[in-house]
Structure formats: C-alpha cells, structure tokens
Amino acid sequence: MAKNATLQNVVLLLGSCIFYFSWSPQFLALLLVTIVATFYISKKIIGAEDSSRKWWSRFGILVVLLQLLYFKYFNFFIENVHDFLQQIGFNSPKNILSIILPLGISFYSFRMIGYLLDVRNKKIKEIPTLLEYSVFVAYFPTMISGPIDRSVPFVKQINVKRDFSSESFSDGLRQLLWGLFKKLVVADTIATITSPIFENYSTLNGSALFIGSVLYFIQLYADFSGYSDMAIGISKLLGIKVHINFKFPLFAQNAAHFWRKWHISLTSWLTDFVFTPLSIQFRDYGKWGLILAIIINFLLIGFWHGAAWHYVVFGLVNGLMYVPLILRGKLGKKSKTTEGLLPTFSEAKNMAITFLSFSLIMILFSVKDLAMAGEFYKKIFSSSLFQIPNFPVQKEVAVLIFIMVALEWITRHQEFALENFLKSNSRFVRWGFYYVLVFLIFLFYIAPKGYIYAQF
Fold first, then answer.
1. What are phi and psi of 415, to 5 degrees?
2. What are this entry's molecular-function GO terms (predicted)?
C-alpha cells in the first residue's frame, strides 16, 4: 500500500515539476530549493523545545517571506522610498529592477507558511516525508491560482494509495466541464468587452464605465471560480480533494457573507493565522478592537494581491465594509437564502446592494493605479451615468451570464452547479445538456487570455 502511494506521489511530483517548468522554467530550481529548506526547518521545529520552536518557525517564515518580498514587493518599496525622498528635497536615482514574478509564488508561499505555523502550533504531530511535502507545495492543479490548501487534510490523502472511483471521476469531470464553461465561455467572452472599456475609459461616459465595472466583477468571478472548479475537478480525477474556494458569492447578502463565499481558501488561511490572533490581542478594546483586527486583515488581503496602492485601498475599503455590521452586532449573523425558486424581497434587495457594492469596489482591483480609479469613480458618479452608454455590448454576453447565474442560483445549495443537476433525469437529457456546454465551449472559444489570478 505504501509503495503504491509512493509511486503515485513520484508521478505527481514529476508531473508538477514538468508543469511548472513549462510555465516558469527559470524558477523551478527556486521552488525546489525553498521546498527542501522549509521541509528541513520544519523538522527542526518539531524536535525543538518551545522557545526554540518559535525561533525556528520565524526563521522558516523569513526564508519564505524574503523571496516573496524580493520578487513581488522590492520595486514597490524602492519606488515609494524614491518618491518620499523627492518630496523632502532629496534627488536620488530610481533604481527599478527588471524582476520577473515566479509563477504562483503568492499561493505556494502561503502553503509553506501555513505548514510551518501548523508545525509550530503542534497541529501536525508527524512530519510528512519530503516527497509528500513536495507534492503538497508544488501540486500542479492548484499552482497557478490556488486554492491554498492546508497540509494536514492534503497529506492524509496522499500518504495512502488512491484507488480509482468511478463516482469521484464522474464528479470531477462535471466540475471540470463547468469550470471550462465559466472560464472559456463566460469570462473570456466578457473580457472582449471589459478590456476595451478599461483601455479607453477616458473617452467613455459614466454609464458605459458602470456597465464595465459590473461586467468585470462577473468576469473576475467566472474566471477565478472557473479555474478553481477546474483545479478541484482535475484533483478529483486524481483521487484528491482540495479546498473549496467559492460558494456562489454572487448571491451574498452583505460584505461578511461575501467573503465567506469568495476566495475561501485565502480568507480562511488569514482568519486562522492573522485575524484570530489579532482579535485575541485586541479583545480588551471591544468592537473597536475587532474593527482594527479586520481592517489589518483586509489590508493584508489587498497587499497580498499586488504591490500597488490601489490593492492596499481595495483591502481597506473591504475592511471598512465590515464596520456597520460590527457596530450593529450582525457580524456573526449568517444570511440564509430561501429554498424556493425565487428569493424573498429582502433577500433580493440585500443581494442587489451587495452585488452593486462589490462591482464598484472591484474597480480598485482592475485599474492600473489610484489615478485611474479616481477617474473611473468620478465619471460613474457624474451626470453621464444617466446617459446612453457610448460603448456597444453584445447581446450574447447577457445570455451567457444569464445561463451561468441561473444555473448557479438553482443549484446554490450544492458544491458546484453540475454536482447533482439533472441527475434525476434520464441519461439522454443529462448527456444532451453536457454536449450543449461542450458545444458552447467550442463555439465561443477564442485565443486563451490567461487567468487573472495567475499574476499573483
């Protein structure tokens, strides 16, 4: 049994290395060296006394953070120091380096840090083998855009032989198909509209930019959740279950509800390792301590996404969205969606407000800088918002969005839209529906536009 699991893991690791090399060949060695370094540091942590455990864990986290800070944030630091010196009268050269960002560095860095913290906190009783740890960090389906898995549930699955399961295989194929539809049909088709809107925003009126912001929010969801569905589906084909990343966030009814449904693996990681320790640290300050912990948490979420001030403001605004919920004592209150076909009036109102709010917030995510964001918001909140949009939108985009949203609303209590959809119908009806989705994928397929979250 163990030998078979080892062989499976060897194949997985080789496949992951080949995958990574095909995308980012110059950084495969960096990834492997960091994996080996953090693995042996984790062995030092588990064998050390409590005082030494903290030292070794901090050293391991520093090893991971130094490469992340260099590749992702070094130029941001240099630019801001240069601008500050200019402001106070010092003329210094702006020595910006040409730094290429390693593929998936934000995702695999968090996997490594989470692992080291779990070892330090004694949540991992037995260190996995180097092979198992390497598979966990470099696992190819989740390398580009997550989800960010935790080591304990992942390693439990790969330290035993995975046997073929027709049920898991079929479930994986359905989730892979749904992910392909969302990414290649919905997201990439919307991108043919949103890209020109954001490129030519200075010539467009407020109504066109508002429509662009709404479409971009849907595009971002279809792109990112589509990738997550594909990653989870491929993992199921391999007999491995990875962290769920989305729970139909387009139907969220407030900010807290939204972030419990959006990029779940990141928010749960930060909840465990950042927000919870901070909320304990600030508990003597009551609601204001909770607000401070949440804002710090979301500033980190914003900064995790990118080394630019518009990402920092993106995080800050999301944190501020929690303030009314905390002051009214509704932060922990879970929003329920009706079991019926149609939402209640209250649910529909809350969903519409949340959807429009995050459509506007995501402008901060999509722009190049704060100046562009300012121009975007200035035009949207002007009288030109009530003019006829001076940018054409194809009708088929609305149809594709309707198909995706309608199917996800009908199946919102499942893991993904096709999990049990039409299972009670005949095989002819089910497979006919699958063929329609495949046909739409080939019909709307255009040159691959890459994944939005691959840049992080």
1. -75, -40
2. acyltransferase activity
